[in-house]
Each structure stands twice: as C-alpha cells, then as structure tokens.
Write a structure and sequence with these properties.
alpha/beta; Rhopdopsin 7-helix transmembrane proteins; 6-stranded mixed β-sheet; 4-stranded mixed β-sheet; 12 strands; 13% strand; elongated; GPCR_2_secretin-like; GPCR_2-like_7TM; G protein-coupled receptor activity; signal; membrane
Length: 501
C-alpha cells in the first residue's frame, strides 16, 4: 500500500514537472523574441550600397577581406567625432520613387562634405558661390558646423534617402578623374585615407528633396520623354501616309518612308537612354548602338535621295518610270551595307581600341555606353554625307534655275528637290545640336531637347502638309471615301488633268 502511494506521488510530481517545463518553454521564446526586437529597434540603421562584405572597387561592388570592411564614423549634434553608436546596415540603393537619385561628392578641396550623424542621418555641407570665389576650403570646425550663427549650408538625409559606401580607386585613376572633373559630375565623396597605390573615399547616393531637385529634372525626365513620344507618333504617321497610298510608293516615297522609320527607331532608342534608373532591365550600350545606327542610316538614305534628284535633273530623258523597285534595292544595298560596316567598325573600336579611362568616363549606373571613339566613327560619315548633299543641292539648284519651261513631271521633280533641301536642313540642324549636347553643357543639352522636339512636326509639314498632291490624295481617300488608285506610273500620270502640284 505504501509502495502504491509512493508511485502515485512520484507520477504526480513528474506530471507537475513536465507541465512546469512546458510552461517555461512556451514563455521563453516570446520573451526572447521581444527582447531581440527591442534590441533591433535600438540599433541605428545605416543604408549601405553594397553588401556588408563588399565595397566599391572602381565603381563595382567587390568582395573584400574582413579587415577592409566599411566602418562608419559617427558625429553627434554637438560636433564630437568618433561617437560610439550601435548600428545596423540596411543593404540597397535608396528608393527615391518619383524624386531624382543624385550622387553628390567630397574629396580634398571639393565644395562638398559628408557627415554621418549619430541618429543615422547623413548631413551634406555645400560651399556657397561667394565662398568658392573667395577660395575658402570646406574645413569647418565643430563650432562652425553646429553653431546656428556660423552654420554653413547643409541638408540632412534620413535613413531611407541615401546609401553610403567606401570606394577604392587606383591613385592614377583617381587623379585622372579629378583632372576631368569627374566626381563633380557624378557623385559625392569624402576623402578617407590613402594606402599604397589606392585612394579610399566615401561614396553616397542620395534622393534629392523636392525643394533641392535639379531645375532641369522636369525637362530631362518628364518633358523630354513626352517630346520623344510625340515625335515617334508623327514620324509613324508620315511613314503610314507614304506607305498606304499606292501612288506615293515611288522611289521618293519609299525613301521618305524609310527615313521616317529610321528616325522613329532612333527616337525610341534615345527614349530608353533617358531613363537611367532602369539599369536592371535595359542595356544602355545596346540602346546607344541602335540610336547611332539609326541616325547614320537615315543620313545615308537622305544621301541616296539627293543623289536620285541630282541624277534625274542631269538626265536628258525626264520621262522615267517613277516606281522603280530595282533602284530602291540598289540604294538599299548601298545604305544598309555602308551603315552596317561602319557600325561594326565603331563597336569594334569601342571594345578593343578605346582606352579604359574614356569608357569609365561615359558610365551610366555602372553600365558602359559608346565612348568618344565610337561616336566619332558614327558621326564622321554623317558629316561627309552632309557635305555631299550640299554639293547635290548646289549643282541641282543651278540646273533648276536654267530651266524656263516645266512639264508636269518636272514640277514633281522640283517639288521633290525642295522637299529634299528642307529635310536636309532640318536633319542637319538637329544633328549639329546633338553633337553640341555631348559637350556636357546644360544650355546646349536643353537646346537639343527643343530642336529634337521640333524635328517631327517640321518633317510632317515638309513631307505631308506642304505637299499639295499628298494632301489631295489624303482628301480623296479619307474625305470623299474614294479608294486610292494603284498605278505603276505614279499620281502625276493618274491625275494628269488635275492641278495637284
């Protein structure tokens, strides 16, 4: 009996012990989680551009040894440096949304300075124009930095408005970038140290506040894409008009359609190059190649147009068939063959002949773009075709002025000659401003945006609205519901008795 009581007591004790252990286990995990969450909230969050074990090595995130990890240095609001702060890295670039992502820069002698505050904010000091003209350096004392009466210009970026990273540059590359004013164009850095053959600097990419946004941001990122979209629609309309109406599908009409398509593709490729934020979805060097290839092809087609006009006016037999598919094929071999050969040369020169410093100078968000050597190979033939087209214009103008009597075909040839001259003028001016926009002057770039926006409407006026016979055919097809006549001899023979030129 005593033995049974002892077993019963032991069994009850065991059950109570197990219940107590279970209760302790259930209560321990939430408490630990709460404690962990509380500790995590107490940590200061610092946005880091690369992973914890990486730093920028010549603008590329590179794995480094633990001794080379980035260690932030904090400053409190009283101006004390090397403040002890418990922090936590948050990896990734800042999510700027609709605001502009802008890199700002500090090195020795630069007009900017970065200070990481104890609450995780990044303070950016800027030198005023008056201080810059006086030659003052950005060496503020603690009293100047935090005294309201002596406070310099600065702006504080919160944790979600910036990312910070250490960058390691080779000394010779760093000196080369300084000579090119590279840092002031791209980003904000703070000089940290110099070890061996490398210069270590601190990089920060920030989201501009609405009141600090670049004055040209609206024109670059909003108005410019809208202009590109309008130009694409207008060029597509020109191509449709000359392609749909059968009597306009002569050699001149086919060339006009092809030029419109080439310019439309160039506008689309340039539209891709505008949005530099989408680096994970597009290849900017591919967009560059398509852009320059399309412009070069458009000028070669314009050169073929000028040659056709020049040769036709010099011919004694002006009663030539307007629709000539073989001539278009011959011109196609000339244009696409020349454009493809020059494009291959430009791409080969960029990848194998251009120097690395020039390639890195033209980086867009760590992606390569066509350098100066490749651009020169693309643009030099364009300059040559413009000179040849000017020769065609001058010699043809002399032939036109010598004639006193014009037949209907001569009137159409004269209208084509005027259209060629106007297209040459518009495309040449736009190309010249495109070349000037490469000089990195804001005014020239904004002027190119405006000129490029005017190119589409001007070509619509030259090729459609100004051409009386084109508007006549459009009225007959659209307003009077008459199907366009398909004639191998062109509209000048089909509407022989109409005054449409």
């Amino acid at each position: 009996m005593a033995r049974n009581d002892w077993l019963a007591g032991a069994w009850v004790s065991l059950l109570l012990l197990m219940q107590s252990y279970k209760s302790l286990a259930n209560n321990a995990t939430p408490q630990n989680n709460i404690s962990s969450e509380q500790n995590d909230k107490q940590l200061v969050r610092i946005n880091k551009c690369c992973e914890k074990f990486e730093i920028y090595n010549d603008s590329i995130c590179t794995h480094v040894n633990e001794t080379d990890y980035f260690q932030p240095i904090f400053t409190n609001y009283k101006g004390d440096h090397n403040v002890s702060v418990r922090y936590k890295f948050v990896i990734g670039l800042p999510a700027c949304g609709s605001t502009q992502s802008w890199p700002i820069c500090h090195y020795q002698g630069s007009p900017d300075k970065l200070v990481l505050l104890e609450d995780g904010k990044l303070r950016h000091y800027t030198i005023t124009q008056e201080e810059k003209e006086d030659g003052q350096q950005m060496e503020y004392t603690d009293e100047e930095q935090f005294d309201d009466n002596l406070k310099p210009l600065f702006y504080d970026y919160s944790q979600d408005q910036y990312c910070i990273e250490r960058v390691c540059f080779r000394k010779e590359l760093f000196a080369h970038y300084i000579s090119l004013n590279y840092f002031t164009k791209l980003s904000n850095y703070q000089a940290v140290s110099t070890t061996g053959n490398h210069r270590h600097i601190l990089y920060a990419s920030v989201c501009l506040a609405k009141e600090k946004q670049d004055s040209g941001f609206l024109l670059r990122k909003v108005i410019n894409p809208i202009f590109h979209g309008i130009s694409i629609i207008i060029l597509l309309l020109i191509a449709i008009v000359y392609f749909v109406l059968p009597t306009l599908r002569d050699l001149v009409g086919n060339i006009t359609t092809t030029i419109s398509v080439c310019l439309m593709v160039a506008q689309a490729a340039d539209l891709v190059r505008i949005f530099t934020e989408f680096t994970n979805h597009v290849s900017f060097i591919t967009a560059d190649i398509i852009f320059y290839f399309s412009i070069l092809a458009a000028f070669f087609w314009l050169n073929s147009f000028g040659y056709y006009i020049w040769k036709t006016f010099r011919s004694r037999n002006v009663f030539l068939r307007v629709t000539d598919g073989r001539k278009y094929c011959y011109y196609s071999f000339y244009v696409w063959g020349s454009t493809a050969a020059l494009a291959i040369m430009a791409v080969f020169a960029h990848f194998f002949l251009d120097i690395d410093s020039d390639k890195k100078q033209n980086l867009i968000a760590d992606q390569e773009t066509i350098g100066w050597l490749g651009i020169a190979i693309f643009f030099s033939p364009i300059a040559c075709t413009i000179l040849i087209d000017v020769f065609f214009y001058i010699t043809t103008l002399r032939l036109v002025n010598r004639r006193n009597v014009y037949g209907r075909i001569q009137h159409k040839l004269r209208a084509n000659f005027i259209m060629f001259a106007l297209i040459l003028l518009v495309m040449t001016i736009n190309w010249l401003f495109l070349c000037l926009s490469c000089l990195q002057y804001e005014g020239l770039f904004y002027a190119h945006i405006i000129i490029n926006a005017l190119q589409g409407p001007l070509l619509l006026y030259i090729c459609v609205i100004r051409q009386t016979h084109v508007t006549f055919l459009l009225k007959k097809s659209c307003c009077y519901n008459e199907p366009p006549a398909a004639s191998d001899w062109g509209d000048e023979m089909h509407y022989m008795n109409g005054n449409n030129y």
